[in-house]
Design brief:
0% strand; Arc Repressor Mutant, subunit A; Tetracycline Repressor, domain 2; 2 domains
C-alpha cells in the first residue's frame, strides 16, 4: 500500500510539473522559458524537475502532449453525448457543436495550437503527434457517432468519416476566422451562432428527409 501511495504521489507531482510547464511555455515561448522558472512556479527544486523529465526539450514535449490529451479527453466526452441525442437531433448537434467550440476556444487549446505551430521547425514530429491525439481521434469518434445515427435512420450518410470531417470543419473553420487564428477571445454569443450555423448546414446536407 505504501508503495502504491508513493507511486501515486510521484505521478501527481509529475503531472503538476507538466501543468505548470505548459503554462510557462505558453506564456514565454519555448526559447525564453527556463526550467528554474518552471520549478519555482511548481514549488519544487530544479533537480526534481529533471528527475521527472530529463531536460528542457523532453519537458516541453511531454507538457504539450499532456495538454493535448487533456483537450482530447474533454472533446471525446462531448462527442460521446451523441450516443443518445434524444428526439431533437438538431438541438443535440447544436449543443455538442457549442461545447466543442468552448473547448477549442479555451486558453489551453489556443496555447496548444500556438506552441505547436511555433515550434514546427524545432519539433517537426510534434505537430503530427498532437493532431493524431486531438483532431484525428475526435474525427474518428465523431464518425462513429454519425454512423450509428445513420443506421438509426436519423441521418443520410454513406461515408461517416467524410461527414465527420465536414461537420468538424463547419465548427472549427469559422472559429479560426473569428478568433483571428487564436489571437482573439470569441464571445459565447458568437460561439452559439457558429454552432447553430454548422448544425443547420450539416443537416441540410445529411439530415433525414
Amino acid at each position: 500500500m505504501a508503495g502504491a501511495t508513493a507511486s501515486r504521489g510521484r505521478i501527481d507531482k509529475r503531472q503538476a510539473i507538466l501543468d505548470v510547464a505548459f503554462t510557462v511555455f505558453a506564456r514565454r515561448g519555448y526559447d525564453k522559458a527556463c526550467v528554474q522558472e518552471i520549478a519555482d512556479e511548481a514549488g519544487v527544486a530544479k533537480p526534481t524537475v529533471y528527475n521527472h523529465l530529463t531536460d528542457k526539450q523532453t519537458l516541453f514535449e511531454h507538457a504539450v502532449l499532456a495538454a493535448a490529451d487533456a483537450v482530447a479527453a474533454q472533446t471525446l466526452a462531448i462527442v460521446a453525448d451523441l450516443r443518445e441525442p434524444g428526439d431533437d437531433l438538431a438541438a443535440a448537434l447544436t449543443d455538442v457543436a457549442y461545447r466543442l467550440l468552448e473547448v477549442c476556444a479555451c486558453d489551453r487549446s489556443r496555447a496548444l495550437r500556438a506552441l505547436t505551430y511555433a515550434q514546427l521547425t524545432t519539433f517537426p514530429d510534434l505537430v503530427d503527434t498532437v493532431l493524431t491525439r486531438t483532431s484525428r481521434t475526435i474525427a474518428e469518434a465523431m464518425a462513429d457517432r454519425l454512423a450509428r445515427l445513420a443506421l438509426a435512420g436519423t441521418l443520410r450518410i454513406t461515408d461517416p468519416a467524410e461527414a465527420a470531417e465536414q461537420l468538424l470543419a463547419l465548427i472549427t473553420a469559422p472559429l479560426e476566422a473569428r478568433s483571428r487564428l487564436g489571437t482573439r477571445a470569441v464571445p459565447a454569443a458568437e460561439l452559439r451562432d457558429i454552432a447553430r450555423a454548422a448544425t443547420r448546414t450539416f443537416l441540410s446536407a445529411y439530415g433525414s428527409r
